[in-house]
Write a structure and sequence with these properties.
Elements: E1 23-24, H1 27-36, E2 40-46, E3 49-55, E4 57-60, E5 63-69, H2 73-78, E6 82-95, E7 103-114, E8 116-117, H3 121-135, H4 139-142, H5 148-152, E9 154-160, E10 163-169, E11 187-190, H6 212-218
Antiparallel strand pairs: 1-10, 2-3, 2-6, 4-5, 5-9, 6-7, 6-11, 7-10, 8-9
Bound molecules: flavin-adenine dinucleotide (FAD).
Flavin-adenine dinucleotide (FAD) is lined by residues 13-14, 16-18, 88, 90, 104, 106, 108-110, 165-167.
Length: 220
């Protein structure tokens, strides 16, 4: 596992210009945003057209791994190219006194880098394990492992976390001073991701109980 010590927002394209006070310079903040997320958005120019695709991901130190079908056109286009990957958490809607000042509370990360198509079989295996366990810790070991055919049908991309930014908004609305006397409710409507109760596949054999790793995930 490689660890990068470069501070965040240290390159021209990752330096926040608007609301700089919301930017984080600590790499731990990047890891926290990535590790708390489940879905990233991969932005790539494919055949001259920008395309943004949601995908699962996993992190190993300062490397982000994404996977997809070998037939995935955007993945093919991304290999060896500059990409942008984002992860976003919405923490609340900020209802201001004026429409203009409405906002959101959030934590988000933007990563720029050259995507590499991972060819080494051990690294591909490890990346798929990371992605699976990122969704449900312990799932890789509990489920059937991929066959050679399934591995061949799967592409793995790696993206370095060297060039990245994190932006976080918290707190109440920032209304214009004259608007604080208005008869308009203002505040934050918090929101968070919660898990439901596990729902067994109707085709599951009745004697198979909900395993601990699923119960652990469901309990947050
Ligand atoms: C859930 C959510 C909803 C949002 N809604 C809106 C909206 O409706 N309208 C709006 O204008 N903005 C919105 N934003 C903020 C938006 O993401 C940008 O930060 C903002 O628009 C400034 O854009 P810019 O190009 O001027 O940023 P700049 O500050 O010029 O961007 C320069 C660099 O800063 C970094 N950066 C910028 N924004 C982010 C970010 N959010 N997270 C991590 N790094 C970042 C990137 O590396 C970027 O290349 C929202 C953000 C989130 C997470």
């Amino acid at each position: 596992m490689s660890i990068d010590t470069t501070p965040l927002s240290s390159t021209p394209r990752t330096s926040l210009r608007r609301h700089r006070e919301r930017g984080m310079s600590d790499r731990e903040a990047l890891y926290e945003v990535l590790d708390a997320g489940l879905v990233c958005h991969l932005g790539v120019v494919a055949d001259g057209m920008p395309v943004v695709l949601p995908t699962a991901y996993g992190r190993d130190g300062d490397t982000l791994y994404l996977h997809g079908s070998s037939a995935n056109g955007a993945f093919g286009a991304a290999a060896g190219q500059q990409v942008c990957v984002t992860v976003t958490h919405m923490d609340g809607i900020v209802a201001a006194r004026s429409v203009f000042s409405h906002s959101m509370n959030y934590r988000s990360a933007v990563v720029f880098g050259t995507a590499t198509l991972v060819r080494d079989e051990d690294e591909r295996w490890q990346a798929l394990r990371l992605i699976t366990d990122h969704l449900i810790p312990g799932r890789w070991a509990a489920a059937r492992q991929p066959t050679k055919k399934e591995m061949a049908a799967t592409s793995v991309l790696s993206v370095p976390l060297t060039e990245a930014s994190v932006k976080i908004r918290t707190g109440m609305p920032a209304d214009e001073p004259e608007d604080y006397d208005l008869d308009v409710w203002a505040g934050v409507l918090p929101m968070s991701l919660t898990w439901g109760q596990p729902e067994a596949d109707p085709l599951l054999r009745a004697e198979i109980p909900v395993p601990a790793h699923i119960r652990d995930r469901a309990s947050g």
